Amino acid sequence: MKYINKIFSIEKVSAIKLAKRFGTPIYCYSYNKIKENVLNFRKNFDNFKPLICFSVKSNSNLYLLREIKKLGFGADVVSIGELIKALKAGVEPKKIVFSGVGKTSGEISYAINKKILLINAESKSEIIKIEKIAKSKRKVVEIGIRLNPNIDAKTLSQISTGKKTNKFGVEENELYRLINLIKKSKYLKLSCLSVHIGSQILDYKPYIKMLKILGRIIDKSRHKFKFIDLGGGMGISYGDKIKKLNYQKYSKEVNKFYKKYKAKIIFEPGRSVIADAGVLISEVIYIKKTNYKNFVILDAGMNDLMRPALYRSKHKIIPAIKRNQLQKKNIEFVGPICETTDSFLILKKFQKIKEGEILVICDVGAYGMSLSSNYNLRPRPIELLIKEKKINIIKKRERILDII
Ligand code: LLP
């Protein structure tokens, strides 16, 4: 995705052309970028050949799941909806892991019937429920336990999951008790120890700390785990600051860990696979000038892209056509939703823009469409995938009639 003759293009297809043909807003993805991310992720951990399960919650478009599956990834799911979609995309059940603190009986039963690789349990009550269902089906079910390692992942508090104050996983002492409980069961087999400390992690040190804790706990438990699921969370650089996670250091430590414990390593990346492969193309409806700032009112709102409103996250906004004239004034890019938090970004300068122009919001491939809603009764955008210069409609724009 880059400017070609000053026009922002996705694999050589101009964003202006897409806006004219399909209307706006549009979620548009680049196949090449997804492929590059998938291959890079795998290459980073090639030493120990992990099972890599794409985190479906980051983007659950069926067409994209199919492409990611074809590139060899499994799926990490957190609901029956995601599980059904992963299966529909052709992901082999033995490459699917199921996490989440609130799996219902229906979800557990479905997962057992489909013979997925692992249900990663997050509480004693859940384990008891899985056992009950397994017993009623007279099946032995392989499960994992998710550990809460009490680690600060040094990321946004809203997307941190590994601290003792977070609802996820079980604390160390409970883990030992649960290992003993499962040992006594005829219907459960404890195969996996899982952990996921948060999302948008750019510092490798919390991961190293996590490995140390896991090692100590495995030694103390004396349990032989077939799988160690290290979760996802690898961050990307939004905006201009090029801070990057040091994969080399992380990978080196995981490799040592792998050699010592000889368990198959599982990863569950979402953002690092898909975030920078997607943009949101939007039109400027109005420009409202005030004494304090100029509001650039877009036809995409927080219902289409929730991250800025929910986490104050900053997504780069760039013009579809690059020009040289600058305007220096506080510019606030906002959506049409009746909420003050429906605001994407404030900039001190931007190129001169007019009403009716097309802008591009960057790095929205992960947790963009998947967090979207119909708030204010607005239909969700169309999704396009550009692959080998071909434009594929991978989800139609919702029609107003569909939602009223
Ligand atoms: N595995 C588990 C158990 C998870 O809870 C998550 C994300 C992942 C894997 C994938 O994490 P990733 O590699 O994408 O960081 N909506 C927020 C992110 C929430 C992440 C929730 N869990 C955002 O837009 O930043």
Characterize the structure shown.
The chain has 404 residues and is an alpha/beta fold. The protein has two domains: 2-29 and 275-403, Lyase, Ornithine Decarboxylase, Chain A, domain 1; 100-267, TIM Barrel. It contains twelve helices and 20 strands. The protein has helices spanning 15-22, 31-44, 62-70, 80-88, 105-113, 124-137, 172-183, 205-221, 247-261, 271-274, 307-311, 400-403; strands spanning 2-4, 7-10, 13-14, 26-30, 51-55, 74-77, 96-98, 118-121, 141-146, 188-194, 227-229, 264-267, 278-289, 294-298, 317-319, 326-334, 343-351, 358-361, 382-387, 390-395. The strands form three sheets. Strands 4, 13, 14, 15, 16, 17, 18, 19 and 20 form a nine-stranded mixed sheet that branches. A hairpin with a 2-residue loop joins strand 2 (7-10) and strand 3 (13-14). The longest helix is centred in the middle third of the chain and has 17 residues, at 205-221. It is elongated, with a radius of gyration of 23 Å. The two termini are 36 Å apart. The structure holds ligand LLP. Residues 55, 58, 76, 99, 159, 161, 196, 199-200, 231-234, 268-272, 307, 311, 366-367, 371 line the site of ligand LLP.
Protein traits:
20 strands; 404 residues; binds ligand LLP; TIM Barrel; nine-stranded mixed β-sheet; 12 helices; Lyase, Ornithine Decarboxylase, Chain A, domain 1; eight-stranded parallel barrel; 2 domains; alpha/beta
